Amino acid sequence: MAPPSAAEIGPASGPDVILEAKRPIESSPNPQASPDHEEHQYLDLIRDILENGEHRPDRTGTGTYSLFAPPQLRFALSRPSSQPNAEPTPILPLLTTKRVFLRAVIAELLWFVAGCTSSKPLSDQGIKIWDGNGSREYLDSVGLSHREEGDLGPVYGFQWRHFGAEYVDARTDYTGQGVDQLADIMDKLKNKPYDRRIILSAWNPADLTKMALPPCHMFAQFYVSFARPGDKQAAHAEGKRPKGILHCILYQRSCDMGLGVPFNIASYALLTHMLAHVCDLIPGTFTHTMGDAHVYLDHVDALKVQLEREPKDFPELEISRQKGGSIDGWDVGDFVVKGYNPHKGIAMKMSCFKNGEYAEAEMLYGHAIQKNSSSPILYTNRANARLKLGKYNAVIDDCIRSIEVSKDNLKAYYFLAQAQFELHHPNEALTSAITAYNLCASSHTATSNAFSIATYVLKCKKAKWDLRERDRLRRRNALLNELETKLEQDRNTDFSDIEERQRAGEFGDIGAKEEKDLVKKAFEDKITELRNIFAIADPTNMALREVPDYLIDTISFEIMHDPVITKTGQSYERATIVEHLKRNPTDPLSRTPLVVGELRQNVALKKACDDFWEQNSGWAYDW
Predict the structure, then answer these.
(1) Which of 15, 355, 395, 517 has CB 3.0 to 4.6 Å from 419, enough for a Cys bridge?
(2) What is the pLDDT of residues 518-534, one digit of tens each?
(3) Which runs of E-coded beta strand occur in 540-581?
(4) Would residue 216 show up in a list of annotated catalytic residues for this protein?
(5) Could you say which of 216, 255, 440, 609 is catalytic?
C-alpha cells in the first residue's frame, strides 16, 4: 500500500487538523509507489539543482551546484490502519531509489540523544561517518590540536542535552549542566502541547569555534495538533479524547543532497517517532526546510542514475518498547523496520578532500575556474589541493590570481606562505604568513585558523633566522679561512726571507732554524688567538642563539619583555595585546571576548624572559 502524501494528511497547523489519507485503488504483491509518491519531492529537487543550480566553491574543496531556499519537502509519518478504530500505522520516510544506511542513521541519532561528543563509540560500532572530523590531522587543521583524537567538541548531542554548559572535553561528565532541550521538549509535549516554544537548537554561536564541524541540521520545532471534534480517525480506540498528532519541522542550513539529506530525513523522522512514542502521541508529518541545498560535483553521475529509478513504498516502523518511559537508554534493536525494499545502493563519495583524492579535486576546480575565472575561492581551493599534491609553484600561481581578485584573501596568503616555505623561501613565506595572520587577527568574525596561522608564522620566522644563521656561519668560516690563509702567507714569506738571508751568509743552518722556529711559534700563537676569537660563534655555542617558543609573543612574534596572561591561559607581550584590544576586543587566538582589565602579569614567564635577555642580550635583539 502506498503511503499518503503530506497534502492528503492536511496542514500541521490549527486545532482542526485531521489525520486522514486516501487509500490506493489497488495494490499488488510487489507494489511500486504511486506517481505522487513523496520521494518525488526529493528527486524533483535534485533535478532542479542539476538544471538550475549555481556553481559554487565550498569548504571541502570539491565544488557544488546549489539552490538557496528551495521548496520544502514534506513527509507523512503514519498512515491509516486497516483495522477499524486502530491507531494509524507508523511509517518511515526512508528513501527507496537507493539504499539508505539505516543502522548508521539509528546509531547516530541515539548517539545524539545520549549527548555524546566523541566519534569513538560510533566508530566502535562500525559507523565511521564522524571519523574524518575527529582525526588528528583534521583537528589540528582547524585549531583544535589540544583535543584528543575523536573529541568533536560541543556538537549536536552536547547542545541537545547541555546547551549553554562550558565544554571541557569528551570525557567530562556534564550531568545537570546546561539546558536539557530534549527533556524540556518532552515536558511540553506532555503538559503544554499548544506551546509555540517546543524548540530543539544545535546552533550555539558561542560554541561554534569549539566544534570540529558546526551543525548543518540546526533547528527543529515540534507541534501537536488535535483532530476536530467528532473525527474518529485519530481518536483512541476506546473512544476517548483524540490523541495529539506530533509534527516536526527542521531547518537545515547546509544540505548535501546526495549523501546527507536522505540521512537527515530519516534521522529527524525517527526522532519524531521516538518523541511521539514516549509522549503517547501519533506521528504526524516531517517537514524539511533547507537553506543551501547542493549537489557535489562528484555526485552528479550517481544522482543521474538515481533519478532514473521509480520510488517504492516507504517501510513501516515498529518500536519494540512500551509506550511512555524515557528517551534515554534506547538501542538500535528497539526499531523494527518492515517492508523496506529499496533499489540497489549507489556509491557516492564524501568530498574529494575528505577522501584524500586531491588530484580529482584539482581537476574539478580546474573545470570550475574555466566556467568562472573571477571567483577567488575557486583559486584558493585549487591551491589547497595542489598543496597536498606538492605542486608548490602552481599553488603560488593560484594564490596570486586569487589575491588579484580579492586583496584581503586570508587563505590565499596562508597557502602562499606554505608553498613559499616548501620551496625554501623563508623570507617571502614569513611576509605572506604575517599578512595572513594580520588579516585573521583584525577580523571580527570568529575563525579556527588563528592558532594554525600563528604557529606557521613562528615556523617561518625560525626558518628565516636559521637561514641568517647559516649565512652568518658561512661568512664566519669564510673569514676565518681567509685570515688563516693570510697568516700562512705571512709565515711562508718570513720563511723565504730567512732562507734568502741564509744564502747571503747572514747566519748558518743553526741560526736559520732558530729564526724559523721563532716565526713558526709566532704563527701558531696568532692562529690560536684567531681561533679563540672566532670560538664565540662556534657551533658549540649555537644553542644560546635559539629562542624557546614560550618566550615569543604570538602577535608581534618577537621575544617578550613584559608578558601578560589572559583568562584563557594565553600569554602575550603587554604592549602588543593592549594595542590589539584597542582595535578588536577579542583574544587573537581563542577569539573569546577580552578587555585590558582582564590582563594579568605572567610572573613566572617574566622571570624566564628576564633571564633569557640577560644571557643573550646581544644577538637576541636581532632575532
Answers:
(1) 395
(2) 999 999 999 888 888 87
(3) 563-565, 571-573
(4) yes
(5) 216
